[in-house]
Design a protein that fits this description.
Structural class: mainly beta
Largest sheet: 7 strands, mixed
Distance between the termini: 34 Å
Radius of gyration: 13 Å
Helix content: under 10%
Number of strands: 11
Strand content: over 45%
Shape: globular
């Protein structure tokens, strides 16, 4: 099975930027979806961004569009951070059928998860 390790995150002032990195090891999926999720205390885990390993179909939640973007593979560049972005961020993955070209932002679809990284704003 694939193992995911995140790094980055930390504390930043309102309007600042942070970058999250996700490194995968273990089983190599031929076609997989890689997603970023976040969970704030007392709230449900929500999808932030997702991309297919074939490179197409990048998807962003409405709340982060124009501020968050994939960079250098599956890293997540976060700009214009505000207090609503404060949460524990997770990268996740699942092996997607060839027919999937647009990866979902639904946590239940993902089977491999990183340990989580805290972002404070």
């Amino acid at each position: 099975h694939v193992q995911l390790v995140e790094s980055g995150g930390g504390s930043v002032q309102v309007g600042g930027s942070l970058s999250l990195s996700c490194v995968a090891s273990g089983e190599e999926y031929a076609n997989w979806c890689m997603g970023w999720f976040r969970q704030a205390p007392g709230k449900k885990r929500e999808g932030v961004a997702a991309v297919h390993t074939r490179g197409g179909g990048k998807v962003y939640a409405d709340s982060v569009k124009g501020r968050f973007t994939f960079s250098q593979g599956y890293n997540l560049q976060m700009n214009g951070l505000n207090p609503d972005d404060a949460a524990t961020y997770y990268c996740a993955a699942f092996s997607a059928p060839l027919s999937v070209t647009r990866c979902p932002l639904t946590p239940g679809d993902y089977v491999a998860w990183g340990q989580g990284n805290q972002v404070t704003v």
